[in-house]
What does this fold into?
Amino acid sequence: MSRPEDTLPPDLFYNDHESQKYTTSSRIQAIQTAMTQRALSLLALPYPSLILDIGCGSGLSGESLTASNHTWIGMDISASMLAIALDRETAGDLFLADVGQGVPFRPGTFDAAISISAIQWLCNADSSDVSAAGRLNRFFEGLYAALKRGGKAVLQFYPKNEVQRGMITGAAIRAGFGAGLLEDDPGTKNVKVYLVLTVGAGAEEGGADDVTNVVRGLEGVDIIDERRKGRGDRRSGGGEGKKGSKGWILRKKEQGRNKGKVVKADSKYTGRKRRPAF
It folds into this structure.
């Protein structure tokens, strides 16, 4: 059985008929509510917060945010889904936008972000002039900027395979996030994957808001956090973290390739110091 994202782009797949069918399904309503509550429990927000709902659809996840006294803003690429959300008089503000083109909000706007069953769509490139890697990079870089320092995000998604799981997690780490992967019901057809992200603050002190403490001790958790290693290199001013070193140059070139830029090929001369010319 083919997955929805393998058939059509999301703005075409979720037309008026599919959007109405999705929203009125009691099964989907129950699943969406349960996953949103799970995301909120992982966020562990101590007070009512401003939350970005990525791929908000018709507002099913937003209902749980409103019930928990949070203020939220929703983004979705499907005009049909957002029209239903308006008809249902959801409490959040709504934006028609493609998150694969970025997250168009002022830096540091949101306390937290959630996404339910949406970001796996970014792994598909719908035309020859875009790439899945580029869309994922733009999304995570935009999300990182839009969150406050110390902000958190929980993104539930359905990876098709390990390649997609790696693409999504890798893009989050490159953007600067500390990342933890949590699986509910692992090894079953009902498995649900949650990517738990933290923006920078408290990483080195192991602060209460850091991702490694948010999900530490939970079953089925794999923590991937390379922020401390990178900061240590920069503080020491040596090794591969030093600006202008071979490691630094290779890392910058790899970042350029991931963004689809044309980068010179690596060679034995990459990063080699030139002798003074007389």
DSSP finds ten helices and eight strands in the chain.
